[in-house]
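#struct-pred
JK: can someone run the complex with S-adenosyl-L-homocysteine? inputs below
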Amino acid sequence: MLLTLTTTHRPATDLGYLLHKNPARAQVFNLPFGKAHVFYPEASAERCTVALLLDIDPISLVRGRGAILTDYVNDRPYIASSFLSVAIARVFGSALGGRSSERPDLVDESLPLTAEITALRCDSETSVRSLFEPLGYEVNVEPSDTDESSARYRNVRLVCRKPLKELLTHVYVLVPTLDNRKHYWIGDDEVDKLIARGEGWLEKHPNREFIVRRYLKHQRNLTEEALARLRDDGDAGLGTHATATVGTASLGDLRIQAVVRALTDSGAVRVLDLGCGEGRLIEALLRLPQISEIAGVDVSVEALNRAERRIGLERMPDRQRQRVKLLQGALTYRDARLAGYDAAAVIEALEHLEPARLGAFEQMLFHFAKPETIVVTTPNRDYNVNYVELADGGLRHPDHRFEWSREEFASWTASVAAAHGYAATLEPVGDVDPALGAPTQMAVFKRCN
Ligand code: SAH
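RT: done, structure tokens with the ligand placed:
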């Protein structure tokens, strides 16, 4: 498989700086499945082309890597699509990530670019067009003569004016999407990668659902998780006709804003974030000088690692760092570290608990930790029919154990408040559907004494 990238930006040889690959030098990179060759067929000030040629070794595939590889044995080695993405990440990783030490100013600049992919495996010309055209590419598709036995291979030319990192990202995600076969790099973190790579374009793509399903190769759990996260990030996002009328803020943003408002209204200074996930609330609270301490608690170490990266804990000045604690812990166990806070937020975490463990959660939070203010958000199940893909009664996230209707949430809120001496108010978050309520429901509990 061959990918070439051409620019007519002046001087065109800046392409070499952006890719961290010297036009004067041909290079070879060893990959687990063969070799990637990088060279410049053309490098003048007017026009510069870099070529990435994958030389896949079918023997290394059958030997080392187990099950899926049998797929590739019968295939022409140079056309395994997902390997192109792996190679892009390895060989052009810094350009893909938008880093350039020598031409930082060019990273975000739209450049005249042409990408040509030889022998791309795909179902049809239409599928190629439907993925790239919405992103602003002029697309040219021709049958590939490299494989006479199959009509599945095409030569594709994409012309655009875009930052190089965007083009690389689109190719990275969409080439494997077009190839509907298994590949070996599906793991849980693929969802994270897809969400990260898709930032800024995938949630707006008219075929995002197709892209997510294909990219994650129809693995139902992974697909659902990715769609759930996009739905959250991309506002009333995927396939829903309940488009929000709340400007450009996503539901995730609105939720954080609502919780931050409730917390600041309460006058809290030390705040607990229970089930903090990747630290969105922590990040928002750190911006508020009146908040002196935030403790994020999550059962998942991976989530805490992500939170740490998101808020940039390592790079923080000491004074700032002292305001944050990231604690591994459970929502359902009494924990001395969680006592003494003014307020606690439990955002989209309750529904991850087994219903049988809810009582333990209530004891831990309302009886033992008992901060003055408690803010809880959870999905409103009534609203789910607005999401086309949940119309059959599915939940918003594969790890949700339940989702409550407005009535169920109101009755839980009232009974918990009464049992533990709190007064509670309910508030909708997000675009309110007159019949079904808002996508997110929030309760604010105030301790009575
Ligand atoms: N509050 C965050 C994350 C919500 S996702 C946000 O709004 O972005 C739910 C989080 O709850 C996940 O990070 C999950 O790891 C965590 N979680 C699930 N069950 C938990 C438990 N029993 N104890 C602590 N955290 C839990």
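RT: quick notes.
The two ends are 70 Å apart (CA to CA).
The mean pLDDT is 86.
JK: thanks, will look after standup
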